[in-house]
Amino acid sequence: MRAANGWKDYTLIDASSGNRLEQWADVLLIRPDPQVVWNTEKKAKEWYKADAIYHRSSKGGGEWEYKHKLPQKWEVHYKDLTFIVSPTGFKHTGLFPEQAVNWDLYREKIEQANRPIKVLNLFAYTGGATLACAASGASVTHVDSSKGMIAWGKENAKVSGLEEKPIRWIIDDCTKFVMREIRRGSLYDAVIMDPPSYGRGPDGEMWKLEDQIFDLISLCANVLTDNPLFFSVNSYTTGLSPAVMEYILNSTVKAKYGGKTSCGEIGLPVKETGGILPCGATALWESK
User: CA distances (Å), 211 to each of 144, 196, 208, 232, in order?
Assistant: First the structure.
């Protein structure tokens, strides 16, 4: 498992009884996590000092209980990047800190390429990967269907000092956008995708990622240049193993371009126990 251990403004202090205890800069949050199936003793004193706790509802969703007054939003820093953090109604904060291990990987690949790199970031959320790639000199097309997430991503770019970088912000259905890019002959050196577990197809039909992942990767492989750099697929779907995603990359991208594939879980180090909390999976194709 690859762990995102380069954070200074984020710490996963402990995890127990279905919850994470996290520190985001100076703010302590407790949020539910379905991976935390153990009921270890809560020794960390911060459990009892949380600024806000997210409670799930039996009817779906949930709400925050604020123990102390918090700013509506605040900043956290990862190396030379800055992100706006804000608790949302769906327990999220606008940032998945475990993805930092992938941001570092993308940056290394782009910087070592020593040539102009065009990146397509699909289901791009608030732009963590977008900013990482742009900071390393890539031009990025950032695509997400949520107007709010695009606005959040632009704000992250601004506070990171990257608002003048070559980033295209596209509000669109990712599948429809890729189809149009294929018709237009638009090509990219790298593709990053972080599709949701459940979503809607181009015609509004409901779909599950397990049922659509092969078609989605196959489609996106058609926008790669003749000399692509990497293709990364992230997933938080528990029923979709990293090896399945790697197999698909192997039979689509690697079959055409050679190179190599790899896969594995990504996670966050837990300060209190020294363990690593699994937080999703990544499959990667690299040109070399």
Answer: 21, 12, 5, 19
